[in-house]
Amino acid sequence: MTSSPQQDFVLKTIKSRDVHFVRFWFTDVLGLMKSFAVIPSELEGAFADGMGFDGSCIEGFCCTQESDMLAFPDASTFQVLPWRPESNAVARMFCDIRTPDGRPFEGDPRQVLARAVDKARDRGYVFNVGPELEFYYFKDAGGTEVLDRGGYFDLTSLDYASDLRRDTVLTLEKMGIPVEYSHHENGPSQHEIDLRFADALSMADAVMTYKLAVKEIALKHGVYASFMPKPLAGAPGSGMHVHQSLFDLDGRNAFFDPDDPQGYRLSKVAKHYIAGLLKYAPEFCAVTNQYVNSYKRLVSGGEAPTYLSWASRNRSTLVRIPGYRPSREDACRIELRSPDPAANPYLAFAVMLAAGLQGIEDELELQEPTEDQDLFALSRQQLREQGIETLPESLGEAVELFAESELMRETLGDHIHSYLVAAKRAEWNEYQGNVSAWERERYLAVL
């Protein structure tokens, strides 16, 4: 039985670090973490032949009649979990899911992104992403009592959660996930930790690790962390702004052009890519904003952009061109501001990349930027009167656009596409049948 150098490293590290259990991590279609533990003596066999498990128990995987699945650990993702004891330690590896005959399982989100990344590489590009994930701390999981009343960048007694953020950042660094910066966000008890950009597959793994680490460290401090897109009425929702760029295979930024006649330092490739994002954003919204609650954040007058527009200075547009270091080639990127942190990062990064690549392939013309207009101040109706289209207003609208999208079906594959259509229609129908407290307060006594 032959093994790779990375697999040898894992086996040696397990002995030297007193690792007694290795968690095999993967996600269901919705992006919820799944895991089972393997003892070290089983690892060599797992690297060679995978570890079997019942796929019918995983949301969106398969039916009972076709339930046998194999998890193949990716040795490059091995890390010891810092929040577990150092003696009898616990480590983790992300897995690729395959069928018993060795084929990649079409319901595995990680392999959807791997396929999209391979497609980009075939065209000469490496897809890099750097997400900014926001979240809230609450006293417990049973309510929304906040820990502080701080605001943007506060560093006072109001920022009660500084130690939580510090411990989380240190934990991520121990796991090889570099953090760019962290700070208090605009909402009470709302926070943000931004990860340094990396290739998309590594970053999707990092996002899943990040979300679990945030929750684990919060629990150690006796509080609860939530990535719900809009947990509080009257307070900002939580987003996952995704900075992204394409580099060529020689390490040059394909988005950068210092001679851009518009002055944005964007190449034609970048502009076609942005045009692709704007064209297909309504179709991929059911992936980047996949819950009923996601659309409570994407409302007129809110702080999340819903308008198919782009600019550099204007933060009310859907796509922004950050200008912190405009003359540096490696800093040139675009930022998509609509996704939220409840999205499955594997699928979200895959559909963004597919939209941008389609824009490049079709050489889509980029509309004029919207620099000087506060789009947050306009209603959807006013925007449409100006010819500015918007993202879907609800999950119900989003899932129907998604269902009709050939690009989404091609990118995600029939299995995941059809599952999401059915699951999100069911979620929307159930929500539509629910009578809320708002409705009772507004109508019960007067109708």
List keywords for this structure.
447 residues; alpha+beta; Ubiquitin-like (UB roll); Creatine Kinase, Chain A, domain 2; nine-stranded mixed beta sheet; Gln_synth/guanido_kin_cat_dom; ATP-binding; Gln_synt_N_sf; Gln_synth_cat_dom
Description:
The longest helix is centred in the last third of the chain and has 27 residues. A hairpin with an 8-residue loop joins strand 5 and strand 6. With 447 residues, this protein is an alpha+beta fold. It folds into 2 domains: 81 residues, Ubiquitin-like (UB roll) (Roll); 328 residues, Glutamine synthetase/guanido kinase, catalytic domain (Creatine Kinase, Chain A, domain 2, 2-Layer Sandwich), CATH 3.30.590.10. The N and C termini lie far apart (75 Å). The strands form 2 sheets. Strands 7, 8, 9, 10, 11, 12, 13, 14 and 15 form a 9-stranded mixed β-sheet that branches. Strands 1, 2, 3, 4, 5 and 6 form a 6-stranded mixed β-sheet that branches. Helix 3 packs parallel to helix 8, helix 6 packs across helix 10 and helix 10 packs antiparallel against helix 11. It comes from Enteroscipio rubneri. Its cofactor is Mg(2+). GO terms for molecular function: ATP binding; glutamine synthetase activity.
